[in-house]
UniProtKB/TrEMBL annotation:
Region listing for Disordered, in residue ranges: 1-23
Protein name: PucR C-terminal helix-turn-helix domain-containing protein
PucR C-terminal helix-turn-helix domain segment(s): 347-403
Cited InterPro entries: CdaR-like_regulators, PucR-like_N, PucR_C-HTH_dom, PucR_C-HTH_sf
Provenance organism: Jatrophihabitans endophyticus
Gene3D superfamilies xref list: PucR C-terminal helix-turn-helix domain
Pfam families referenced in this protein's UniProt entry, alphabetically: HTH_30, PucR-like_N
Biased composition (Low complexity): 1-10
Domain PucR-like N-terminal: 23-186
Length: 416
């Protein structure tokens, strides 16, 4: 018989026992992973509602910062159960940043300790129910509690270290210097190199050879995270209408994960890696990617990456020129009714892209009967005449269709 989900969990924190050999089965991590996202959301909401400093209001700790720490902590604990030697470098760095951020903002660490206690209690209740359902012996369940107890202690210790370091070494002046560095970097080759180096040194920022810029489109009414929650090697301005983050390139998976978590409630695009003095280009591409996603020309995603859309960005690099090419090259197609225009445009793009495929091959891709394809191709020849066989015209048609085609493929009519 298995224990019910709401079985009463032992009192938290569990009573400490004498040191003993680790007995928590690593296989338990397999059963814990499916509930991680749900548990993370529950802990975040509970902390948000029970602790005033983490609740709604202008003086509260940003919810996205809380979510980042909770997400990394919960994931690492399960990784540690699966592998006691799992690296926690990323988590410790985040905890240090959290502690530093609390010090910078003049907050007491007491609220943070309370948040850890709340999270631990909720995690213990969930883990106890899970272990009981699996029929684990009481001794193993006790060992699991000991693991969690020690883990929470370590979280508090790491964030406390960051808090004390910030109080002793760092000041708001460093972030002001860093803000000026970002301005100079975005000015590119026009910025005095000596001034950039001096400001970077004053802000404690190591100048990288290459960077990637992150453009953020804020969701109205949703607060942005504090700039102090960014990666230590990042620069950012998150109070403007067009928030920007600069990261040293190449970006690590950990950096990408942090961006996704910190800005989960906003639209985000990461620009391509470029030399430091070309940072403005990376930012321009990231902003252009957001714009194309808004218009449906790029498929939306939680975090858009310019590297995945280089071709589309290139086609749309000169919007006015693209509009002229589309208007002149596809003018006969625009005379068709909207639905016919969409169907014929998709067919023409596929025909040009695949170099005169057979009607059956096209039919399989387009999901229609071969005879339907033959009819569409005949209709296209009626519309465009011999121009459809001219290599230069076909090339222009290809780029024109690429400039508008994604919206057609989604079932949206092309623009008039």
């Amino acid at each position: 018989m298995t224990a019910p989900e709401d079985a009463a969990a032992p009192e938290w924190p569990p009573r400490r026992r004498s040191p003993r050999r680790r007995a928590v089965p690593r296989e338990l991590a397999h059963y814990m992973r499916p509930v991680l996202d749900e548990l993370t959301a529950e802990i975040t909401d509970e902390v948000h509602h029970r602790i005033a400093e983490y609740g709604p209001g202008p003086d509260s700790v940003n919810l996205t910062s809380t979510r980042l720490v909770i997400t990394q902590a919960v994931r690492y604990f399960v990784d540690h159960v699966a592998d006691p030697h799992a690296s926690r470098a990323q988590l410790d760095e985040t905890l240090h940043r959290l502690g530093r951020g609390m010090a910078y903002e003049g907050r007491s660490p007491e609220a943070l300790r309370s948040a850890y206690h709340i999270g631990a209690g909720m995690a213990w209740k969930r883990l106890h129910a899970l272990a009981a359902r699996r029929g684990l012996p009481a001794g193993i369940l006790g060992d699991l509690g000991e693991e969690l107890f020690a883990f929470i202690d370590s979280l508090a210790e790491q964030s406390s270290q960051g808090y004390l370091e910030a109080q002793a070494q760092l000041t708001d002046a460093a972030h002001q210097w860093r803000g000026r560095v970002l301005e100079l970097v975005l000015a590119g080759r026009a910025a005095p190199h000596g001034e950039l180096a001096a400001h970077a040194a004053a802000g404690g920022w190591v100048v990288p050879e290459s960077v990637a810029l992150v453009a953020i489109s804020p969701t109205p009414g949703v607060e942005l995270p504090s700039v102090r929650m960014l990666h230590p090697s990042a620069l950012g301005t998150l109070h403007a209408d067009d928030p920007v983050v600069l990261l040293p390139a190449p970006l690590t998976d950990a950096m990408r994960d942090e961006i996704a978590i910190l800005f989960a409630d906003h639209r985000v695009a990461i620009g391509c890696d470029v030399p430091l003095l070309d940072a403005a280009s990376s930012l321009r591409w990231a902003r252009r990617t957001l714009e194309l996603a808004r218009t449906g020309l790029i498929a939306d995603a939680p975090v858009l990456d310019c590297r995945d859309h280089v071709g589309t960005l290139w086609v749309h690099a000169e919007p006015l020129l693209a509009e002229i090419v589309v208007g002149s090259t596809l003018a006969p197609l625009f005379a068709e009714p909207r639905n016919s225009r969409r169907i014929l445009g998709m067919t023409l793009l596929h025909w040009i892209s695949t170099q005169n495929p057979s009607a059956p091959a096209m039919a399989e891709v387009l999901g229609v009967h071969p005879q339907t394809v033959r009819y569409r191709l005949k209709r296209l020849r009626d519309i465009f005449g011999d121009r459809i066989d001219d290599p230069q015209t076909r090339l222009e048609m290809f780029f024109a269709l690429r400039a508008t085609g994604p919206r057609w493929n989604d079932g949206q009519p092309a623009p008039d």
